[in-house]
Amino acid sequence: MYSIIYNASNLVTLENDNLKEGPRKGSAMAELGEIPGGAVVYSAGKIVETGTSEALLKKYPDPIDLIDAGGRLVMPGFVDCHTHLVYAGNRSSEMLQRLQGATYLDILKAGGGINKTVRATREASSDDLKRLGMNRLDHMLKHGTTTVEIKSGYGLDEMTEHKILDVIGELKSSHVIDMVATYLGAHTVPKDRDRCEYITWLKGASLSAFQKKAEFFDIFCEDGAFSKEESIQLLEAAQSAGFRLKAHAGQFNDLGLTGVAAKMGAVSVDHLDHIDDHQIDLMAETDCVGVFLPGVPFFLKTGVFPDMKRFRDRAAAFAIASDFNPGSCPSFSMPMMVSLAVLHCNATLPEAICASTLNAAYAMGVGNETGSLKAGKKADFIVLDIQTLDELPYYFGTCLTHCVLKNGEVVFQSEI
User: Fold this and answer.
1) H helices of 143-227, where?
2) Residues 250 and 384 in one domain
3) Cα separation, 293 vs 295, whole angstroms
4) Range of the domain at 402
5) Could you tell me the sign of the dihedral formed by the alpha carbons of 112, 114, 117, 119, in that order?
6) Is 0.85 surpassed by the pTM of this model?
7) In this structure, are residues 311 and 355 in contact, taking their beta carbons and an 8 Å threshold?
8) Does the structure show a pLDDT above 90 at 103?
9) Interacting residues of 110 by C-beta distance below 8 A, sequence separation 6+
10) What CATH number should be reported for the domain holding residue 394?
């Protein structure tokens, strides 16, 4: 029993049998495995085969379901490997403050920023957070995202961090998008806690409390958050407790954590607007993925976008993600991140496609399950209302999704 989607103007598979498994680096990121006039055969939620429509319709003559892509482009679903999706409230007023000259760090130090969202999230009920999360996931699905990483970090106390991670667990069982949970208690030190006491809690009791609810441990290494030394101590403790590692680094300042985290085995280090060549070289020696978040400098108007060409030239793996959050990037759209990567970050279009699908999947530990249209992987793909790949970044800020298939089932269909 199999199904076929056929008549794609271009089928982007990201498959190449000559490339090794794992996150792609350098010129390998440009290998998109495109099939003009392509088709996908899938069964029981998994991909069976890709090829030309003509060949596969002959090979599989009696599908139980036959979907005509109508000459549109078909590609893997987007993988958003860095989000802060579960929170209450919003920070639209802070955007106006920044337009009047305040910086992100100014607002954070004055008790706004993360701390404002922490207060709202602590006050919200689990039902409210789930309702908000479902709505945000629906928006992401509409823009073609089929897999997403979600961080905690807007609780910063045991009760609220439990509440957030429990809500993520409920979302996993309620929404069609696949999710991976990350514990980000080390987002910042809350205003109501002593710094030394809070760090001691993070390194000790918090790890055992949340180990069964999150796969990853993350930390924000930045002025106003955690120092390099504090970050290393926390990452070492989390790794010893059984967590896989991630880190926020180099958003506003390069404190030197990136290379250390990569050598510790971190799956990804994210932001990297400020990073020196030595740190990139250390990443290139590992499979740690540098995750760029181009929506953040765009929304914060920092004027400093990450330079993805430096990662290409030094053969380090990179991905892109939305960093959906209330303060620095309230955007659901991975296609918009592709546009920003191409227009502002020196990424080529093929690199941006790889970075938002396959490499993003590896950046959240699911590259063997999704991110490319390879036989045996999940049948997660999207049909975009364009004919050529270069139209994707060209129509920036536009929802181009015609339909989304998740595990072989149509889960979104445009009414246009």
Assistant:
1) 158-174, 195-203, 205-210
2) no
3) 6
4) 3-77+372-413
5) negative
6) yes
7) no
8) no
9) none
10) 2.30.40.10
